């Protein structure tokens, strides 16, 4: 590590964004019920909320997923234009998607816990005021 890297602020060393390979479960999920062309997969990723998608990176990822036998592809020559690959999920890919889903569920629980604690730290009086709102008023004596 160079001296310059050591002095970088954390937000520059670890930029905000999705973890490495985070796009994989979204690609697999998109292919779960439908076989799709690469450009349609890129559209789906945008709908999931991914920003600044590099199509070259997506196609490299798709080729890697195919090497790992998680997806398959066939050439579609039925349209009038150039041939396009149609990608489909394999049984192995479905199993891998299940593993990802379980991992993401665990991460979701961790993230929920983090934000619960973070919110309590930022707004400590909200918890007390919420409990005061839900506590019924005691009837006054003699009523």
Automatic annotation (TrEMBL):
It comes from the Bacteria. Residues 28-98 form the Transcription regulator PadR N-terminal domain. It holds the Pfam family PadR. InterPro entries: Metal_resp_DNA-bind_regulator (IPR052509), Tscrpt_reg_PadR_N (IPR005149), Tscrpt_rep_PHB_PhaQ (IPR014091), WH-like_DNA-bd_sf (IPR036388), WH_DNA-bd_sf (IPR036390). PANTHER family: PADR-FAMILY TRANSCRIPTIONAL REGULATOR, TRANSCRIPTIONAL REGULATOR RV3488. This is PadR family transcriptional regulator.
